[in-house]
Structures are given as structure tokens and as C-alpha cells.
Amino acid sequence: MTDAVVVEGLVKRFGENTALGGVDLTVSEGTVLGLLGPNGAGKTTVVRILSTLLQPDAGRAEVVGLDVGTQADQVRAMIGLTGQYAAVDEYLTGHENLEMVGRLYRLGKREAKARAGQLLERFDLADAAHRPAKTYSGGMRRRLDIAASLIARPRVLFLDEPTTGLDPRSRLGMWEFIADLVSDGTTILLTTQYLEEADRLADRMVVIDRGKVIARGTADELKAQVGGERLELTVGTVEQLVVVTDALRPLAHGELHADRQTRRLSVPVTGGTDTLAEALRRLAGTSAQVLDIGLRRPDLDDVFLTLTGRSAEDADTTTDAEDSATVSAGAQS
Amino acid sequence: MTTLAETVSDSVVITKRNLIKVKRVPDLIVFATLSPIMFVVLFRYIFGGAINLPPGISYAEFLLPGIFAQTVVFGSTVTGASIAEDLQKGLIDRFRSLPMSRSAVLIGRTVADLGLNVISITVMALTGLAVGWRINSSIGEAIGGFLVLLVFAFAISWLMALVGLLVRTPEVVNNASFIVIFPLTFASNAFVPLESFPAPLRAFAEWNPVSTVVQAARELFGNVPAGVPVPDVWSLQNPALYTVLWTVAILVVFVPLAVRAYLRTASR
What is the C-alpha to C-alpha distance for residues A109 and A100, in angstroms, rounded to an integer? Predict the structure, then answer.
């Protein structure tokens, strides 16, 4: 498989501030790379360099074999960009927006119109096609924005936080549209702060923090870095917590963690549902009242927490290092 | 490299986009039509009786070229605010990521704003005719008068485009341009004859290109009474030439600067 995007040693400074301190990444043709990190990690800067909006200070950045600095015009003809803002002209209708962008990609008038119609249909905007985009909801604008970036059938699509600011329902809808694009074979570089989003959409992930790559791999590989699955259960009383801890100790692969406050027990295990069945059997032999029980695979929040000592959500709001340490310690216990 | 034909075609697409906005945003139509009408009527009847003019000319004839100039120069500030708005909304980023001509966004913007000025000036001219303004020259000269006004305003549009790209906030662009454009249009011969100005202000006004735009328009519309001496300064003696020199100079300096700023700009 060839690489549609190649980034090597990318450096970008804004005055004193180093936004990117040597980033390497590749995106194989026809796959989705999730670029993860908190606000200010440098995700958008990577996208802006790859979409020719910013010049890097050092390093190499190529899109379908073309250098983004010296062959910017050719690169622009190959890419689609959906930035963070839903860059649609709100005074134009959905159809007019798409037609305009199509014409600027140098499609003929007829082709631009035809593509606009197809994409409005595909992104569920056909009914609103002839209404000014001003009247669109947030989700509709984002969809129109993505449609605009697809109008000339780009080989590589950059989606910069495509669901930030959307309500949960619109976000789910957007994921379906993106998953659809992926099945068409579009190469996508997706940035997101939402670990669930990357988990859903991306084949491979690169996690960056403060302008540096801190981890890369598939979702499973990243999760393996934080450890395997855990059996978690909650019981009715603190006394029962002691009872179940003793009952389940033989199943543990590692240290059990009992939280007296929440009466919750967490047991690192292997063996999946067989282990769960075994645990239930053992629990049946005790008098403990089990309120809930389940197997939990680590999610990307755990990954981020382990890698940076901060949870992904805290990272953008917490500026004080001491603060974030307390927060993460609290979250881990 | 984009060819000239591609630049023209891209600029047409952008111009069309900007003019659609004019059609859909009633405020803009109001700004482009109602406020000039208001200016013409107010100035005509409020200042009309108070300002001493040489015999042989009505205040309506004196005033209209001045109001034209003031309105089109103010009209060109729209360029700056609109560009700043496009920047804020991420549209400039989108355009910059497209394989389109590098200058088309600015050309399309300034040409659309020129169109807006054509609308304003037409409405003002009709209002002027209703309150006593007349064209006392040939059709050719009259067209020349309108062209001087519009081309000067077009040049100012490019200056404002640069301001919009650098300032980035529509409201600030509006306030900043007001501070510059207001004194520039009032410290001129647009509303009152220069004879009443104190000396230093008068010297400034005599060389102020807004004065020469007004003077050139007055001459081309035949609104300068015969036998009234023009101030003995080169600028006002050759107002059309002086205005064209300014227009060319502004374009030569600010078109490349604005395009350069556009290429380097980024919404964050």
C-alpha cells in the first residue's frame, strides 16, 4: 500500500511558541488516520500545513507524492479540507455553496451543478438545497462543509474536528457519513479530541501532545499499552466488598483495586466472558449482593491518561501542572 | 500557475457570490440606497441656505458631486469589513485551500463592491435630479465624471481589503476606517467651498485627493459656474489628472500588498 500522506520531522513555530516539534506520520492510501490530542496539541497546525495554508519551518510534508510547499497548486487540486468552522457562505443556498466551490475546483458549470445535486442528496440536504445556509442547523452546516470539500472527488480529505460543537445526535449522524466515505476508499486524516470518535472511525491513530507524537498504532495496540480488560463490580455494603475481594482474588492477573467509598471492585483479568462466568459462579457462593458487574476493555481515555498523566478532557482546561496531576490521580483511583 | 482566463473566471465566480449576498441581505440594499437619499435631501435642505456660494450656482449643483464622492469612498469601506468577516468565518481558509487563482478572492470582492457603489451612485443621481441637481455637460463628460468617482473608490477598496486582512474584525475595520475616511471626506471641498477653511486645513484640503475627485466630477458634470476662479494650486487646476495619479498609485501599492497579505493570512 502506498502512502497518501507523508510527514517527516515537521516543525512549526509561532514566535516563541513551538507548535510542532518534529512530527512524523504517514497515512496509507484508502485508510483513516486519527490525529488525537487535546486543544493546542498541534493537530490543526498539521492539517493547515498539509492543506497548504501554512508553511512549515522545517521538515517534509507530502500529499500523494507532491510537496505541499513547492507544489502547492497541484496539492490543492488533490485535497479537500473541512476546517473547524464549517466554512460555508451563509448567504448562499446549499446548492449555490457547492456549485461555487465546484467551479473554483475548475469543474465545468454543468459538472459542478450535477455534483452539487448528488452531494446534497447524499448528505441528506436535498430538502434544504435551495435555502440559504443561514437557516441550517449546526449539523447541516458541517455536512454542507464536508460536501463542499468532496465536490471535486479529492484523493485525500482533511477533517479538522468535524464534530466539535455538535449535539450527540448530530455527532452520530456525522460518524455515519464519515464511515460511508471511508467505504468509498477516500483517504482521510481526521483530527479529534474525542477518543470515542477516533475509536469509531480511524484505522490507525497518532496521539500528539504539545507538538510531539507520544503514541501511535491501532486502537487495539494503544489499548494494549495500558493493559488488558478488567472485571468491575459494585456491591451493597463495605463488608460485602471484603467478601467478594477474597472470592475473586484467584482470578486476578495483577493487583485488585477495591474502592470502599463506591463499594466498587476492579479486577484485572484475562479470558473474557469465560472468566466472567467463573466470577459469577464464585460470587453465587457468597452472600454478597452484586448491584452490577461487567467486563470493561480500556478505552482511549485510559490510553491518554496513561500516556500524559492527564485525561483528554482535562488537558485543554487545566493549565496548572499540579492541578492536572491531582485530577488524573483522582481519576485513576 | 493560473492563467489570465482562469483568474477572470474565478473572479467572476467570487463576484457573483458577493452580489448574491447584496440581494439577500436587506441591510446592504438599505445602506446602498436609502442612506445616500437621506444624505442628499438633508444636506440639500439643511446646509443649502447656510453656505455662501459664488453667484450663478445652486447648492444642489455644488453639493451632489461632493455627496457622490463621500458616499462611494464610504461605500468602499465595505470591502474591508467583508473580508474580515470571511476571514472570521473560515471562508478565506477554504478559498486558500482550493486550486483557484490567488488574486480572485480580492478581485471578486472589490468588483462586487464597485457594483454596490454603482447602485448607490445611480440612486443618488436620481435623487439629485429630484432636488435640483443638473448635468450641464455632454454625455461623454458626464460618464467621465461617474468613472472618476467609481475608479477612485475602487482603488480605496483595495486599500480597505488590506486593512480587513490585517485587522480581521469587521467591527474594528468599520470603526478604524471611519476615523480615517470621515475627516478625509469632510476636510475637502465636498460640502463647503475651501475659501471658508483656515489656512493649514485649507492647504491639506487642496491636496486631498477627495477634493480633486469632487472638483473633477464637478467640472465633468458642468457644475462649476463660468467665471468662478478655481484655487490656484496644481492639484485643483488639474483635478482629473491628479486624481488618476492617486488612483494608479494606490492600486500599484495596495494590490500587491493585499494579495501578499491574503496569501499569508490564516484565520488563526
Answer: 9
Q: Which residues 6+ apart lie within 8 Å of A266 measured at CB?
A: A230, A231, A232, A256, A257, A258, A259
Query: Which residues from A are below 8 Å from B16, CB to CB?
Result: 100
CA distance B119 to B99: 32
Closest chain B CA to residue A131: B24
Q: What pLDDT digit, counting tens, does each position of A72-103 carry?
A: 999 999 999 998 877 899 999 999 999 999 99
User: Nearest 5°: CA angle at A272, between A271 and A274?
Assistant: 75
DSSP reduced 3-state for A233: strand
For residues A67 and B10, give the distance between their C-alpha atoms in angstroms, rounded to a whole number: 24
Q: Which residues 3-32 of A are in CB contact (within 8 Å) with B?
A: none
- Per DSSP, A83 falls in state -
How many Å lie between the alpha carbon of B110 and the closest alpha carbon of chain A?
Answer: 18
Q: Do B94 and A76 touch (CB under 8 A)?
A: no
Any chain B CB within 8 A of the CB of A96? yes
C-alpha cell, A105: 475546483
pLDDT of residue A223: 79
Distance CA A86, CA A101 (A): 14
Interface test mutation site (partner A, options B23, B82, B91, B94, max chain A beta carbons within 10 A) = B94
User: Nearest to residue B264, comparing CAs of B156, B163, B169, B165?
Assistant: B165
Q: What is the ipTM of this complex?
A: 0.89
Question: Can you tell me whether residue A317 is helix, strand or coil?
Answer: helix
Range with the lowest mean pLDDT among A229-233, B9-13, B143-147, B238-242?
A229-233
Distance from CA of A55 to the nearest CA of B (A): 9
Residue B76 falls in which region: left (phi positive, over 0), alpha (psi -120 to 50) or beta: alpha
pLDDT at A311: 61
Identify the structural domains of chain A with CATH numbers, from first to last. Answer: 3-217 (3.40.50.300), 228-296 (3.30.70.100), 300-332 (no CATH)
The values of phi and psi at residue A160, to 5°, are -95, 105
Distance CA A51, CA A191 (A): 13
Q: What is the DSSP string of A234-261?
A: EESSHHHHHHHHHHHGGG-SS--EEETT
What's the domain count of chain B?
1
d(CA B185, CA B205): 9
Query: Residue B158: pLDDT band by 50, 70, 90 thresholds?
Result: very high
Q: Which domain holds residue B224?
A: 4-264
Amino acid at B187: A
